[in-house]
Amino acid sequence: MSQADPLSASQLEQAFEVFNQLSHQLDVSYRDLEGRVAGLTQELARTRSARLRELAEKERLANRLASLLATLPGGVLLLDSRHTIRDVNPEAIELLGEPLIDQRWVDVQARVAPSAGESQREWELVNGSRVSVVSRLLGDSGEHVVLITDVSEIHHLQEQLGRKKRLTALGEMAARLAHQIRTPLSATTLYLAQLARENLPVGQRQKIASKVTERLNHMGNLVDSMLSFVRGETPVSDVICLNQVLAEFEAIVSPTLEKHRATLKLTPVDDSLRLLGDVDELAGALSNLAMNSLQVSNGVVVLELWVGALNSSWLQMRFRDNGPGIPEDYIERIFDPFFTTRAQGTGLGLAVVAMTVSKHGGEITVNNREEGGAEFIINLPIEPPSTILVEGPTADSNQGEVVYE
């Protein structure tokens, strides 16, 4: 075996130089690796610290949520995808009783509220309590959370409020009835005073007696309507001619107008203007407007009622007087129940008018006239002429200005 030739000096120098370069590169790489390891160690430490803080926060939130569920004034149940109860809070146990865990939700419902349907959101429990039941799906897991709230106290308060509202409504209806009866009662009193005259002709006596009977029947109809309203019955609404309303209105107010020497101007109408409603109620509403004008006016009272069709669907009535008008501050409140500017007023007359108009599907507004006095504008829907009319009193086709002196 031959020995390798010895390296020359230049080759050795070159080899040492390569070795030194590699050593230097290894040293740089090692230091770089050390720096990276140190950076990764710091990053891992920071990540670990952040993770620990996150876990601690989640644990705090979990503890807080558990505390909230424990003190929540409502029952909370967690149902799995098979609607089996997996977790509950203390209030749920208080409301529904045990056992609950691992019980099927439908079985619990049958036990605590056998009369409740599956879709009902409010249950009456066997112990007499009432609870509200709401279920929500939790994501895509198929689990449900059920919230149960005791609403027994709310029901009790609602019943008390309902009783108070019924009593209040009864008082308002009694006041309304008294106000409605006052006008025909005043007319009846005036007629009876005339009957007391010894020299009254027989024909006149019979005519007045007939009017007394009409007014008494009108008051009876008002009482019947009020009783029907109290019992919750649907008011009778028939197809009527507007001239029936005007004729009844004139019959109601004529004695009072005669007493005050007032002038009433009525627009002549025929049977073409028809509406769906009640003659007595509409005539009573117009009578309230007339009585209101008489009560606030001074001197010679002039009342005017213009009626006509606005189009094929609506008719309009404009009731005007020559009184002092309505203060601008009161116009917005004039139809409010029990609002009055007179010491002896009930505050129901105009409220009854607005209620009656609304009940008939119409609307009423009021404004002051430039020449003085107030104007009430009533819009009511017209009934198509193909419907059957109800027989009743009709107005004189030659009806116009009527002066009572």
In short:
The protein is an alpha+beta fold and 405 residues long.
Plain-language structure description:
The protein has 405 residues and is an alpha+beta fold. The chain has 4 domains: 11-71; 72-150, 2-Layer Sandwich (Beta-Lactamase), CATH 3.30.450; 155-234, Helix Hairpins (Orthogonal Bundle); 235-405, Histidine kinase-like ATPase, C-terminal domain (Heat Shock Protein 90, 2-Layer Sandwich), CATH 3.30.565.10. 49% of the residues lie in helices and 18% in strands. It has 8 helices and 13 strands. Strand 3 (122-124) and strand 4 form a beta hairpin. Helix 4 (152-195) packs across helix 6 (242-260), helix 6 (242-260) runs parallel beside helix 7 (279-296) and helix 7 packs antiparallel against helix 8.
What is the gyration radius calculated from CA atoms?
45 Å
Oligomer classification: single chain
- Uncertain stretches of 5 or more adjacent residues: 390-405
The number of helical runs is 8
Strand content: 15-25%
Mean pLDDT: 80
Largest sheet: 6 strands, mixed
Could you say what the CATH architecture of the largest domain is? 2-Layer Sandwich
Alpha-beta classification: alpha+beta
CATH superfamily of the largest domain: Histidine kinase-like ATPase, C-terminal domain
Question: Order of strands across the widest beta sheet?
Answer: 11-12-10-9-7-13
CATH class of the largest domain: Alpha Beta
